[in-house]
Design brief:
Length: 572
């Protein structure tokens, strides 16, 4: 909802028949009422058609997937595999909206508009490549009338000021209110300074998040956290992450994710002693985490990494000596520990089966670079990697030489040898969901900034909001944001049941690409001022660009995870 207006209860967003939404007492969207409208309340009766289109599109994509499987799979047909992964991700986003659409007139309009957008995206990927897909563009002809109705400028313009209700349960409404308030009062006031000055995350934010339980959302209650398992922990983290990212991606939305990745690895594979020692410290922020997995030469190719951990003894203590270089270690200076993946089996033919996961303690370092010496000869040096956005947490390349860790810092100890890749993936799958939630928060902030600016910027004699093109842009933003949010909620509920690994990858693929468009258009609505650093929208734009790169680069995610699993599903 636009930030300048007080929060309304969900039922107040129900659209009276034949009327358009009024935004506060101040502004109605000018000119929209004079357009030949497709009335929003007609959307409820079209939900059945929307659901039919989703299923029909699913069958077309399944046919294309079978063709991909028969012609060599994702490695041989990379372009088809990539486009198929994104089309399938948009489809699953649409599918997740069908139940949402049945909850009211605005919800139905948002759902139908998104289904039309999904079909349009599919068609643009298909044109000129019909033989590659083994799907003809004419097979989408049955959807033409629906798509024309719900891509009509009049319909999208009518949704420009109507983000739609979230339909959160009361418990999650409380989570939303708590983290939204913290975001506004504590995070937001630092966001611009940290971004412009490339400063550090203020300790006030870390301490404040610890006080409201942010770091314990995924930690089981028996280990000092707030999780009782199931849907609740995933939903709470998703809602909290969105609200913190709405205030700032760099110093709010990402702080929860790294402790959570280590938490899930420990819950999955740690010994009871390790859980009782580390999890309470993670919950209170006594221990902050950086993830050290990626290496300079291998990027997302984790199975090929070179960093080694060799069994050794130092001062009578059994342990491992670590050597190697890690890169893109976000929060590496401020962190108390690295969650580090290393090769414990020298036989490289074992690929990811020879990797183990360690908790590597380290001193706090200077954000501009650090070097530590360990008794016994170990060294650790961190070089900051300057970035165009996503500032505050800072990323580092960390060179490690003969750094010793005790044996009980191997997650799972002897039982954990060779299982590090699997423990890490336990955290990374939810990390993808959290990245999608970050993208939703970022998009919401961009939409609010664009909406407020459009209502206050006068061009050629009237406010920008009075122009149809602005209204349509804002309307499509509101549709995409709500679709992304509802898909994130759906995936959180799946993961709470031990499912949804595939959908977690899909929600990241779809939502992170969508965030680039939303923030770009928000910046465009600002005109020249969008390119000026005095307006926050420029920060939102450069922050959005990282979302398709980290937590699984878009191309790798689509080819190695989504497309591969789609192929497996048609071969089963």
């Amino acid at each position: 909802m636009p930030s300048t207006h007080p929060q309304r209860k969900s039922q107040e967003w129900r659209l009276p028949r034949g009327q358009l939404p009024q935004i506060g007492a101040r502004t109605a969207i000018a000119n929209v009422t004079s357009l030949p409208l497709v009335l929003v309340h007609d959307s409820l009766k079209d939900l059945t058609t929307a659901a039919t289109i989703v299923e029909s599109t699913s069958q077309l994509l399944r046919r294309a997937t079978k063709h991909l499987a028969e012609t060599g799979g994702p490695e041989r047909q990379q372009v088809l595999a990539y486009d198929l992964a994104h089309a399938s991700s948009a489809l699953e986003t649409a599918r997740s909206l069908i139940d949402y659409g049945a909850k009211g007139e605005v919800e139905a309009a948002i759902t139908c508009a998104f289904v039309a957008d999904m079909v349009h995206d599919f068609a643009t990927r298909l044109i000129g490549r019909e033989q590659l897909w083994t799907v003809k563009i004419a097979e989408l002809a049955n959807f033409d009338a629906f798509v024309a109705t719900y891509r009509a400028p009049e319909l999208l313009a009518s949704l420009a000021a109507t983000p739609g209700p979230r339909h959160l349960d009361d418990d999650y409404e409380m989570v939303q209110d708590t983290f939204r308030s913290f975001g506004k009062k504590v995070v937001a006031k630092h966001a611009e300074h940290v971004h412009r000055e490339n400063a550090d995350v203020p300790e006030e934010i870390i301490a404040g998040l610890a006080d409201i339980g942010a770091f314990g959302l995924s930690i089981p209650s028996e280990y000092g956290g707030f999780s009782e398992g199931g849907e609740g922990e995933y939903m709470a983290s998703c809602v909290a992450t969105e609200e913190l990212s709405r205030a700032s991606l760099g110093i709010g939305g990402s702080l929860i994710t790294r402790p959570e990745i280590l938490t899930r690895a420990l819950v999955k594979g740690g010994t009871e002693a390790q859980k009782h020692y580390w999890l309470p410290k993670l919950s209170t922020a006594e221990v902050m985490v950086a993830v050290a997995v990626t290496e300079p030469d291998y990027g997302s190719d984790v199975a090929s990494l070179k960093t080694t951990a060799v069994a050794a003894q130092r001062d009578g203590v059994d342990g491992y000596v670590i050597n190697g270089v890690k890169t893109w270690c976000t929060f590496g200076a401020r962190a108390n520990v690295l969650m580090l993946l290393a090769r414990t089996d020298p036989d490289r033919t074992k690929s990811h089966r020879g990797l183990s996961l360690f908790i590597v303690p380290k001193p706090l370092g200077d954000a501009h670079g650090f070097m530590f010496n360990q008794d016994g000869g170990g060294k650790m040096e961190g070089r900051p990697i300057d970035t165009i956005g996503y500032r505050g947490m800072h990323s580092y390349e960390i060179a490690i030489e003969d750094w010793f860790v005790p044996a009980d810092h191997l997650i799972g100890e002897q039982e954990g040898l060779g299982k590090g890749f699997y423990f890490q993936m336990e955290g990374f799958e939810n990390g993808r969901l959290q990245t999608a939630a970050r993208a939703v928060g970022l998009m919401q902030a961009a939409y609010e900034a664009a909406y407020d600016y459009a209502n206050n910027r006068n061009v050629f004699g009237k406010n920008i909001i009075d122009y149809e093109l602005t209204q349509v842009k804002l309307g499509r933003m509101s549709v995409i944001i709500q679709a992304a949010r509802q898909f994130s909620y759906a995936v959180a509920k799946m993961m709470g049941k031990g499912e949804g690994a595939m959908e977690a990858s899909m929600v990241k693929a779809y939502v992170c690409k969508a965030a680039e468009w939303v923030t770009r258009e928000a910046m465009q609505i600002h005109g020249g001022y969008g390119y000026a650093e005095e307006y926050p929208v420029s920060r939102l734009y450069v922050d959005a660009r990282v979302l398709s790169i980290f937590e699984g680069a878009d191309e790798t995610l689509c080819l190695k995870v989504i497309a591969r699993r789609l192929v497996e599903s048609v071969q089963a």
